[in-house]
Backbone:
């Protein structure tokens, strides 16, 4: 019995040492914006005061564009997801992108409200601040849901709509990134407020790409840093709890703006079947499926995904 006790005691000690080592290796406290801005908020980044937040934003391209393009990112992402599109569009079009409340360098909303109506009001407030009366709204995932919410709640502000693997319908994912799964579990939310295994971020990114080999160390760096922005980890949990579009889904029928639905055929997070639902519910919409791309086609392959929408953007 003593020998068994010694073995069990030794095993417990090894587990404890392993746990301590894991925490030490992955210890990652929140980082202030000042520590991250030097790398991720270089010009033309600016910070504007909206709704009690210093919103990280980039406003590029000609100011005489009569219909600017607003790019809205998805959950746990940031304005850099649009780098490829912006580089191509901004020589001839005014392109505005921002870090949404709860994400990127903008950080958490003061009141913790991450509901779809609040996000829609936020986009209108950004437009008001920049004196943009009408815009083409482009949104991916959560950003797509926000874009169509603006289209139905403030239709006079939206000239066209581009929905990229957008939120909007109850969804059965084929595969949910591990970071999202952990954010839904209170016990892990508490733990991950202090640690951040780089592998969790890398695995989550590989999950939303059709070709995981496109996930580079530099891209993982970006997402790690944005997750560490003070308050973002807590905000993600709140967003997961309050961010459902289910009660607003019937309003999709009310969308009247010219709409392009763009979807990665290999999206495992928001099923491609949802693309057909948007197409059926939005009268006159156009549907383009992108072979061999996943949930974030504008990030995974900017050139190919943007080529699919140039004609739509050129239409009067």
Residues:
């Amino acid at each position: 019995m003593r020998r068994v006790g010694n073995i069990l005691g030794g095993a417990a000690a090894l587990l404890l040492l392993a746990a301590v080592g894991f925490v030490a290796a992955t210890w990652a406290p929140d980082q202030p914006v000042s520590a991250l801005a030097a790398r991720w908020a270089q010009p033309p980044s600016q910070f504007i005061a909206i709704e009690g937040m210093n919103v990280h934003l980039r406003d590029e391209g000609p100011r005489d564009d009569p219909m600017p393009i607003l790019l809205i990112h998805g959950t746990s992402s940031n304005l850099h997801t649009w780098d490829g599109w912006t580089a191509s569009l901004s020589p001839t079009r005014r392109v505005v992108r921002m870090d949404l409340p709860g994400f990127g360098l903008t950080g958490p909303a003061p009141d913790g409200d991450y509901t779809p109506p609040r996000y829609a009001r936020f986009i209108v407030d950004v437009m008001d601040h920049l004196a943009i009366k009408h815009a083409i709204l482009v949104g991916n995932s959560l950003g797509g849901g926000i874009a169509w919410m603006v289209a139905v709640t403030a239709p006079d502000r939206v000239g066209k709509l581009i929905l990229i693997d957008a939120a909007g319908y109850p969804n059965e994912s084929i595969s949910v990134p591990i970071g999202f799964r952990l954010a839904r579990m209170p016990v892990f939310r508490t733990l991950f407020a202090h640690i951040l295994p780089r592998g969790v971020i890398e695995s989550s990114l590989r999950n939303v790409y059709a070709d995981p080999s496109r996930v580079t160390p530099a891209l993982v760096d970006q997402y790690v840093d944005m997750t560490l922005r003070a308050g973002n980890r807590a905000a993600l949990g709140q967003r997961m709890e309050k961010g459902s579009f289910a009660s607003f889904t019937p309003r999709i029928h009310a969308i009247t703006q010219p709409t392009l639905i763009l979807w990665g055929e290999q999206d495992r997070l928001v099923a491609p079947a949802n693309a057909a639902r948007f197409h059926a519910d939005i009268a006159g919409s156009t549907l383009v499926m992108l072979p061999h791309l996943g949930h974030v086609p504008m990030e995974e392959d900017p050139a190919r995904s943007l080529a699919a929408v140039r004609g739509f953007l050129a239409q009067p």
